[in-house]
Design a protein that fits this description.
The protein has helices at about 40-45, 50-60, 130-135, 155-165; strands spanning about 1-5, 25-35, 60-70, 75-85, 85-90, 110, 115-120, 140-145, 170, 175-180, 185-190, 195. By secondary structure, the chain is an alpha/beta fold.
Length: about 220
């Protein structure tokens, strides 16, 4: 699998060079800081979601891009996902800390032509139950668009990929990484855009646990 990371820029401004066209299976952006209003998008006044869908068509790639969505004043951190020229969904961050943004409603695993893709939105990376849920629901790999990183993200990526057996692709402003199920960062780069080759693999183990007093004696 080929993954193109674009830490800076948006689908509105991105244009691949001729040599880079159509060579990525997944195109992963960081966060688009300007707000995307659902109301203005529906009226045709802005075309952010359309640009994400168009890019997926022209690049023949699954595209995931972080953005700030605005629903009549209710602002959330979100990720727009498109494939084959069609917007297939928008995932919201579930855990909003200190009231800066509103929380989202549900997790989603996307069925794509390159596998089942789980989406972790920004600071949801700090909550292990999010990654665990995506792993249990059968994600072949997980993508995580991020804003500015503060150093803890590489530790979290390694721990989550190792503990839950699913590789994670991470794209932030100025840095991108791939965490493998071995618990190692197998790719990291400050460049943007940059393309990495990686074969996703999942880790499975049969775990047996003994519990005392779990069942009521009859």
């Amino acid at each position: 699998m080929r993954i193109r990371f674009i830490g800076k820029g948006t689908p509105l401004s991105f244009s691949a060079t001729e040599g880079e066209e159509k060579n990525a299976d997944v195109t992963l952006f960081g966060f688009y800081d300007e707000e995307v209003s659902y109301e203005r998008e529906l009226k045709g006044e802005t075309r952010f979601f359309e640009s994400v869908a168009r890019l997926s068509k022209t690049q023949q790639s699954v595209v995931a891009c972080g953005c700030i969505t605005d629903t009549k004043g209710l602002k959330r951190k979100s990720v727009a996902v498109a494939e084959n020229g069609r917007l297939i969904g928008v995932s919201d961050m579930l855990n909003a800390v200190d009231g800066a943004y509103a929380s989202g409603a549900a997790l989603r695993v996307y069925e794509t032509g390159v596998g089942r893709m789980g989406v972790v939105v920004s600071d949801d990376l700090r909550f292990p139950e999010v990654i665990k849920s995506l792993a249990v629901c059968g994600s072949d790999f997980i993508v995580c668009p991020f804003g500015r990183m503060d150093g803890i993200q590489s530790v979290l990526l390694r721990a989550h990929a190792y503990c839950y057996g699913v590789p994670i692709y991470f794209c932030a402003d100025g840095y991108c990484m791939i965490a493998d199920v071995s618990g190692e960062i197998v790719f990291a780069s400050p460049q943007s855009p940059v393309t990495a080759e990686y074969l996703p693999r999942k880790e499975y183990h049969l775990v047996e646990t003994r519990r005392r007093g779990f069942y009521k004696a009859r």
